[in-house]
Specification:
Layout: E1 11-19, E2 24-31, E3 37-43, E4 50-52, E5 58-59, H1 63-73, H2 81-97, E6 102-104, H3 105-119, H4 121-131, H5 137-145
Parallel strand pairs: 4-6
Antiparallel strand pairs: 1-2, 2-3, 4-5
Helix pairs in contact: 1-2, 1-4, 2-3, 3-4
Bound molecules: zinc ion.
Zinc ion (ZN) binds next to loops.
Length: about 150
């Protein structure tokens, strides 16, 4: 770390402190040449993975698009708008926590289906039918069969 005042290459760390709120570390430093003091911050670099589409292109994860798909699936279902927001945030966090540079778009769809299955059976089937664009009945039946038992009695 070069001194920002005199560009001297050698600085001493006089104090290190973890800042809980931002998950960063602040270091107090002192230049061994000009004796000026300054601080540096270290933060964990994290970023959202890009979404790799089936056609090979990469796009940024779009929470609004996910929200729209979920809202469409949940149209007129007894689920609050807040729940949709929560679900989008949850999926966003899950993607973020993967710590990957890119994820296949199918994974985002699967996460959405997984969450919908927990929230509302009808919405799940709606979403799955659009998302997977079912070609045959067996695929459709399979999707229904994977629903949690507790929600099939609706
Ligand atoms: Zn200096």
């Amino acid at each position: 770390m070069k001194c920002p005042f005199c560009q001297h290459a050698n600085t001493q760390v006089t104090d290190s402190r973890l800042l809980e709120e931002t998950n960063s570390i602040r270091r107090r430093r002192r230049c061994v040449s000009c004796r000026q003091r300054f601080s540096t911050f270290e933060t964990v670099e994290m970023r959202m993975p890009q979404v790799l589409k089936t056609n090979g292109s990469r796009v940024n994860f779009n929470p609004h698009k996910l929200h729209t798909s979920l809202a469409r699936a949940l149209h007129k279902r007894p689920v609050s708008p807040e729940k949709i927001d929560e679900t989008v945030t949850l999926i966003e966090q899950r993607l973020y926590q993967l710590g990957k540079k890119e994820v296949p778009s199918q994974l985002v769809g699967e996460m959405a289906m997984e969450e919908l299955a927990k929230i509302d059976q009808v919405a799940y089937v709606r979403f799955a039918s659009v998302y997977k664009s079912f070609n045959d009945v067996s695929e459709f039946t399979q999707a229904i069969a994977t629903l949690p038992q507790s929600q099939q009695t609706e």
